[in-house]
Amino acid sequence: MPAAGVQALNGLAAGGVGALLALGLLAPALGERRGAHRVIYLACVLVSAALAGLAFTTLAAIGAGAPAAVVALPVGLPLGQTLLGWDALGAAFAILVNGVTAVVSAYAIGYGSHEEEQQRVLPFYPAFLAGMNLVLLANDAFSFLVGWEFMSLTSWALVVSRHRDAGNRHAGMVYLAMAFGGTLSLLMFFGLLAGHAGGYGFDQIRAAALPASTGAAALLLALAGTGSKAGLFPLHAWLPLAHPAAPSHVSALMSGVMTKVAVYAFIRFAFDLADPGAAGDWLGGLLVMLGAATAVYGVLAALIETDIKRVLAYSTIENIGLVFGALGLTLAFQSKGFAAAAGLGLTTALLHSVNHAAMKSALFMGAGSLIVATGERSLDRYGGLARRMPRTTAAMLVGALAIAALPPLNGFVSEWLLFQAVLASPTLPDWFLRLVVPACGAAFALAAAVAAAVFVRLFGIGFLGRARSASAAQATEVDAFASTAALVAAAACIVLGAWPALAIGPLQIVVAALLDADVINPVSGPWQSLVPLPTSASSYNGLVILVFLAASATCAALALRLLASGALRRAPAWDCGFPDPDPATQYTAASFAQPLKRVFGPALFRAREQVTMPPPGDGQAATIEVEWHDLPWRYLYRPMAQGVLYLADRLNVLQFLTIRRYLLMVFAALVTLLVVVAAWH
Amino acid sequence: MALIAALLPQLVQMLLVLAVAPLVIGTTRRMRARLLRRVGPPLLQPYRDLARLARKEAIVAHSASPLFRIYPYAVFAATWVAAALVPTFATGLIFSWSGDFIAIIALLGTARAALALAGLDAGTSFGGIGASRETMIAALAEPAMLMVVFIVALLAGTSQLSEVSAFMAGPTVGLRVSLGLGLVALIMVAIAENARIPVDNPATHLELTMVHEAMVLEYSGRHLLMIELAAATKLVAYLAILACVFLPAGIAAAGAGPAALLLGVSAFVAKLLGLAALLSVFEASIAKMRVFRVPEFLGAALMLGLLGTLLLFVSRLSQ
């Protein structure tokens, strides 16, 4: 395809963003009409699907050798024009974002009718999609930041759409503060880069050679800005508050997709705009450490939390940790000149982004269906839903097993690639990395193992057993749109697990474009097996494993049918002879997590358990008090917030001065500035 | 024809692990009983138990979900496939490339997740105890196991168990500290994962000490048969991993003739029975520990594994 063709595709994509914005404006015009949400969400499905198709065509064209092209719109701030266009990276993420968005919007056609105040959601939802797409399309710093802010502010509006709940308002406030902090970092990042490049276009920035120290400083700023949006420890504090506060289809997008836009931004900055050069080794090591800390912290917090949406939000933090860990390995490999291993690291990060988007959107859609069906959010108020909501159960089961990194589903594939990347790292000639990487590898292994516990708990307590509340006992399956959309996302988890080449193939175009090297396609073994590095013969084939599993189970079932008694009897549960009809005697989410909490809680969360036993003979009930704390919140955010309040209090006097004193202050400020300028020269 | 010749050893391996699994269980029971000066059950008792379970009707609790009848097959299939991927009597079987050491561990993880869900399914308190404790043990044992995988993979340059076994049988290995650490960690993990003393007691039905048995309380008949066979197969899989990495002697090379294969099979069965005997000696000489001591036990395994991995990372630098 010639460049003009790619340019036309980009023009259409910009038109798609415009269409989404127009939908945002249309929503208030439709007013409170019945079915207004169906119109909007259906239109979002269509536009998103079209954008995903355009992005796929673009990526295919670039893969076939067409140069990336840019569309210049004659609007925009000081530059005078806005540069829009996908390159390979942007197009790949656009497929991911819009593909997931199309499914989630279809979910919202059904789910959205349960919203009480439609006008607090409908206008912002398409605008949120437009913001994310603008970030991916942007080819200059201005439009990037405009898109980024659009994405932040519209998602903030969606977070506070249920503003009557004080918790949601608090979540909105924290989110807003963190989003501004993140954007400030990005602003300074672009300032540093543009200062050297003399322009804000990505092409100019790319062309300018950065001094090594500036590159490293810029990347640290980029890490702060994108990490706060993605939920990197310790900048994660807003995420478990804000993601669950939004309506569930928006939570699915924020967790599944918006965090991926942040990942996109970091990849764009670290591997395209600001080359860290030799500083890549310690930056990579730092990133691996941050990723490992994020993964372990997120997954353990998910284990303790009992609100289903907060469990999912913490698990998002865990997965972001894995992605950033893989990116850190990539930086380290790249700085030391190991092209093949760097390609493996980047492929892992991209593939895990895709996989996580599929599984997390399936899980959040399922969680939304649960909340609609029962009106409850605590895992301890569900139970027995497997019989009452079979389709949602199937979607959640697949999503839970996938995110627990269990073969033959997709979560395992990217986790496996991550371990392979860790195993490739002893070749790195650097002491720091050699000590950091294996320790972080152990942390990733721990995170994967605990994730299995988290999702066994989520599914086992939420769907199995007996109903734990009256509303769960009467729950009914949600509408066809909602349950089918969740099932589609779950099916994607199965397909990507059995056939990862489907995603890895297109992602290789991105990796080759970013790393400027002959990367090795990991899909090279027999029957499209994954062979990450040709120097080690390690391989994995999800399809063969899946077929093997199905064949073994079928063989076993057939053999039993032939040889064993087929009699089946329903009877009361045995429970060692002491069945209790009260559903409260079942294990709860808290009691299930208690053993692991006892192992990790005291150190990581200051978790405390206090049991008060009445003395023998006393008829009083024994009590148990449990508490745990998000430590960064306690020791980082709260002091900071208190400091700001204190300063504001002190500075408040400045508002009540006489005019003479104000004039005096203006004069003093002027003199100080002049002195500073004189000293500078 | 060549395909059938290549498929045959794989098929033999799949059937072999199933066929010897009850024998291994019978050996440990018999040995342990003899060490405790009891007569003990006959060696073939587990086969009879399984046959009896097959004849019984299956009972499903009223509160169980439709998934209740699926888990046993899922547990069995995942365990069986994992065991089939471990080189037992020969390396380089036709499907050995479809999963490496990490995939084998993860497949056992899939089986464990299905079993834990089975424990929670009927909504009974004992099932919950078992599932909760099993996931705690697994959450600590799995990273330790992965550290063992790292050690072995770093030494052999690949995580493919077939290649690892060939490498370990070769002359270039020598004695290494990290391998020793890995061996100890692997044994600790294997004990914990297979619910053996001192972590769990396979013979107990004392409510508060059960882990594995508590999860399967609600199962009976053919469903229980599947789960029991899966548990025995899992033990065989772990012993086979131990054997192929640390005792690779006698294992047939890829494409070996029938004589070498036959030798491999007999060596494998001998190794299994020997390891089962060692296991029962160990079990007879130690007491079961409290559940909350288990994290310390597995934490030690994790630290040993990490230490071995770090040693390898650092020693590469000095080379």
In brief:
The complex is a heterodimer of chains A (681) and B (319). Chain A has 681 residues and is mostly helical. Chain A has helices spanning 3-30, 36-63, 88-111, 124-137, 141-159, 166-197, 202-207, 212-230, 239-245, 248-273, 280-304, 308-335, 339-374, 385-388, 390-403, 410-423, 431-463, 470-473, 480-498, 501-515, 542-563, 589-605, 631-651, 659-680, and strands spanning 71-73, 82-84, 568-571, 608-612, 623-627.
Distance between the termini of chain B: 48 Å
SSE pattern of chain A: HHEEHHHHHHHHHHHHHHHHHHHEHEEHH
Amount of beta strand of chain B: under 5%
Strand content of chain A: under 5%
Oligomer: heterodimer
* Count of discrete alpha- or pi-helical segments spanning 4 or more residues of chain A: 24
The number of distinct β-strands of chain B equals 1
Number of strands of chain A: 5
The major sheet of chain A is characterized as:
2 strands, antiparallel
- How many domains of chain A, as an integer? 4
Q: Can you summarize the main beta sheet of chain B?
A: none
Global shape of chain B: globular
Uncertain residue segments of chain B: none
Largest interface: A-B, 93 and 92 residues
Structural class of chain A: mainly alpha
Distance between the termini of chain A: 55 Å
Mean pLDDT score of chain A = 89
Query: How many structural domains does the protein architecture of chain B include?
Result: 1
Structure classification of chain B: mainly alpha
Helix fraction bin of chain B: 55-70%
Shape of chain A: globular
